[in-house]
What we know:
single chain; elongated; mainly alpha; 5 helices
Amino acid sequence: xxxxxxxxxxxxxxxxxxxxxxxxxxxxxxxxxxxxxxxxxxxxxxxxxxxxxxxxxxxxxxxxxxxxxxxxxxxxxxxxxxxxxxxxxxxxxxxxxxxxxxxxxxxxxxxxxxxxxxxxxxxxxxxxxxxxxxxxxxxxxxxxxxxxxxxx
Length: 152
């Protein structure tokens, strides 16, 4: 019996089973490389399921906060204002992935508007770019360092 039946734990059990029992039995180099890739993908999925909802909620909150603050410094009724209004009309009603992802899409639009509307010489441009850097850091954490596993 598993005492921690999370998706991450299930992936960990599958990875361990494949590594401990299937991997040693494989003699074909191509099959070994394929299994290494499967193990890598399962590992990246584990990172994603452990963090995805939190990261999406954090990114949306940061974009909304910065967007609302910077919107007062930009021309009114622009795309940023519209994106912020749409986001405010879609409060987070649950932590189910579909609900979080729907709100994340709206937050992504706010980030996109910030990147498009805040000029490079604006004193707060660095804050906008840090939001994008944070998002990219999460993507790298999910994907890991890209490598063709099992290939030389």
